[in-house]
Request: fold
Amino acid sequence: MKAIILAALLLALLASACIEDGGAPPAGTTTPGGPISTVGSPPAGSPGATPVCAAGSTQRFLEAQSAASFKVYCPTFLPAGFALEDVRFEQTPQSGTPVPGPGAVIATFRRDSPQASVRLVQGRPALSDITDVRTSSGGQPADTAYDGFEGSLFDKGVLARSPDGFTHIISADGLTADDLQQIAAGMQAVAP
Reply:
């Protein structure tokens, strides 16, 4: 009797799962159109999905997100040849108080040939980081996309402020303005 009740419960659960999936066959099965993707793995770029961060850095950015109290972004595009050097979260003291501030996530990427580097700082960076990017340009900064909000493109970097009020800096050596725009446009939050 218990076996019949257990079997009935399992069939009811299976039936409700098929209804929720729109009657789709179980994940991994083959249909005339080909294999069906695994349930629960949304495609990259869809809401709620973790983006694939450039240079194999996804896990390191997820670790930084777990330490940060703000939304952390990662580059989904870097020009060819870049390798991850470091991603870290730095807790910074709030000026004039014993309570720590929100800190900053700092990531560095390097390329040997041709030589170039990219440094990302987000959260509450040091004033010198902001000043270095702003003073790198002789003219007026140009607007550039940064995951749905605007950033300012300078000669050696991008400076942006996210909707939640945190600063985002991309500083680079050995890259063109087009490279910087592509990096900025490819920035995505690592967690929803």
